Amino acid sequence: MEVHVADITTTLNACELVWRQQSIAAADIAEMRTELESHLREATSAGKSAESVVGPDINTFARSWAQVKTTRSMPASDTIQATRSYVAARSRTRLWWTLGAISLVTLLSLILGPRGEAADLEMWQWIFVTATFVLLIGEMLSGGFFVLPFGIGAGIASALAFARVEPPLILLVFIITSSLALWGLREFARKDDDHVVPVGANRYVGQHAVITEPINGVGTVGRVRIETESWMAIADNNEHISTGSVVLVSEVRGARLVVRAD
Question: Are 105 and 151 within one domain?
Fold first, then answer.
């Protein structure tokens, strides 16, 4: 009996597209594709349709298989819990070391630091008190734990200034305690390089799609299916991309996706 290769290829490509979007490893995708192809060929040879294997909704079938594959690949729950416990313990240890080091530096400065005249230190007192309030307010507004370490350093410097410690030592302690606080709080700091999630069709750039209507070179418009949506698609070069092929979306141009063969 004749095996409908086009139907099998289209089904395989559609499933592969979903698996890639689910971040399944390439080796696992190849294994899953080979296994599914075997089932599809057996069904077609027996006179059955691809739908008898994957059901009426390819996306649901592919996602369910991906979920099973991901579940099998996940570490055991006790391993996950152990990892979380280790990270939490490491963070606590870092904080305790930070607090200890800052306290030691502050106490040594208060006990052993040279003293100056109160009149000469009044300007430094105002500088560090003002800096403390400004930095702490800045931390409350930003909430990223990047300003807080310097607020802590300024607060300690203020205390030293009111204890009449000499300005050079105050500045040194400010730098040391701010650096220690920054080291201790760095795991809680919010990264400032978080990218903005693209919206609209731009979210498809870099993703894979399946050709549903062929693209016959430059100047022709085909269609692709990506996730659950259908989009017009074009190719910049003189590629001829047939139905069922998996392509990569390189950019969005108006209401059309620019694709290339993957």
Answer: yes
Query: Residues 40-50: pLDDT tens digits?
Result: 887 788 777 77
Distance CA 8, CA 11 (A): 5
Instruction: Kindly state whether residues 238 and 184 are assigned to the same domain.
Output: no
Do residues 105 and 171 share a domain?
yes
- For β-strands 256-261 and 246-253, DSSP reports them as antiparallel
**Are 213 and 256 within one domain?**
yes
What is the pTM (predicted TM-score) of this model?
A: 0.45
Range of the domain at 112: 91-188
Express each pLDDT in 4-15 by its tens digit: 556 788 888 888
Residues 137 and 205 placed together within one structural domain of the fold = no
Same domain, yes or no, for 183 and 222? no
Kind of pairing between the strands at 208-213 and 246-253 = antiparallel
Q: What is the total count of domains within the chain?
A: 3
Q: What is the pLDDT of residue 69?
A: 59
